[in-house]
Every structure is written in C-alpha cells, then in structure tokens.
Design a protein that fits this description.
Blueprint: H1 3-22, H2 32-42, E1 47-57, E2 63-72, E3 76-83, E4 87-92, E5 95-100, E6 105-110, H3 113-117, H4 121-125, E7 134-142, E8 145-152, E9 158-166, E10 169-177, E11 181-191, E12 209-212
Parallel strand pairs: 6-12
Antiparallel strand pairs: 1-2, 1-11, 2-3, 3-4, 4-5, 5-6, 7-8, 8-9, 9-10, 10-11
C-alpha cells in the first residue's frame, strides 16, 4: 500500500470529523440561509444511513468508497468504510477511535475543539458552536433542494465545505482540504432516526496496535 494512500485515508478521517463541526460554525446572528442550516442540524434527533464517497487528489486517480454511518447526540458517531478497504471510525462521546484492520492498528484521538473544527462531526454535534470558523460564500435553492458553499475564516486543514439538503434529507457533503484533496460524500440512504447505542461501541482484537495521537 502506498504511503500517499495511507496518508490520504488519515487526512480523510480528520476532514470528516471536522465536517460534523463545520456547518454548525455559522454565525447564529447571520442571514436567514445561515440560520436555516444551523437549525436543520440542531433539529436532528439522530441519523444513520449509507454513503458513497469519492476522493480526488491532484495528480492521482479518483478513489471510490462506500459504507455506513450513524450519529446520536451529542458526540456519538460511527463512520464505517466497507469497500474497497475496511476502516471504522467511532466516537463514544469522549474520544474518537480510527480502526484500520488491514494495518491491525487503532489510532485514538481525544475529542477537542480542534477535532471538531477540522471535520463533519461538528455539523451534527455542535451546530451552535464555532461561529468564527465558516462563512457562507454562496447559497442556492431550487425547490426543496438547497446548497450552501462554506469557506473557512482562517487557515485550517479543511478549507471549504459544500452542504446539500433536499427536504429533510442530507444529500451530500463536499470537503476541500489544504492538500488539494476533494472528498465528495453522497448519502444514498439517510434516516433521521436515532440509531441503537451499540453501534458506538468498538471491540478491538487483543493483538491490535493502539496508538494515542499526540503522544
């Protein structure tokens, strides 16, 4: 497995964790389109479904992945890639564990403001927080379909985020990072129901290598 591919997978995890914080970082006192996006994520009782994810990087061919996700307030989160490789990211409300079976390695990250600021866990988990991080560059609406293009207010790994809602369904997220990578996540199934709590537990094999980030 190439070094670039391993690095891109870890950048993707950071980016996705950031998105949950991203949409929620709009200024609560801003325009109506900003307040509508914050209110939509604040109104979610939970969510789960299936996704198709595409990565594009300068000079590299496109990679397509598919999997499942689940979220429950406030900080319970699961992002599971099933193909073409296996990777499971789980938050139990205190820390985030990224399990890569092909490497037999789990990387543990504490849940901090920085983690929320760099990925999608902030959109779901804290839509009313982080008002200084993003601004709406453009808003479009055609019938029930609404699209927000967000840009960061400061230099971060995550530079841009596009959120598309169709009625009460999250249709897609597009993340652009500082390394030139563009990640598109299309939700082929999206339910607004709170998932069962057991989805947010992760049992690792005894021989797994556990790495704690920052140590």
């Amino acid at each position: 497995m190439s070094g670039w591919f391993q690095q891109s997978r870890r950048r993707l995890v950071v980016g996705l964790l950031a998105t949950v914080g991203a949409a929620g970082s709009l200024r609560a006192g801003g325009g109506g389109e900003e307040r509508a996006l914050v209110a939509w994520f604040k109104g979610l009782p939970g969510a789960n479904g299936e996704f198709v994810q595409e990565e594009e990087h300068t000079g590299q061919r496109r990679r397509t992945m598919e999997g499942r996700f689940a979220w429950a307030p406030p900080l319970w989160f699961r992002w599971e890639i099933a193909a073409p490789f296996s990777q499971v990211t789980v938050s139990d409300g205190r820390e985030v564990v990224v399990w890569e079976p092909d490497l037999n390695q789990a990387t543990v990250y504490p849940i901090t403001a920085e983690v929320l600021a760099e990925g999608p866990m902030g959109l779901f988990a804290a839509p009313e927080r982080l008002p200084e991080w993003f601004e709406v560059e453009r808003f479009e609406q055609q019938g029930e379909r609404r699209r927000w293009l967000l840009r960061t207010r400061s230099e971060r790994m995550l530079r841009g985020l596009s959120v598309v809602l169709t009625g009460e369904r999250l249709e897609s997220l597009v993340l652009e990072d500082a390394m030139g990578q563009r990640t598109t996540v299309r939700f082929v199934h999206f339910s607004r129901r709170r998932p069962p709590q057991e989805l947010f537990r992760l049992s690792l094999p005894p021989e797994a290598l556990v790495v704690r980030a920052g140590r």
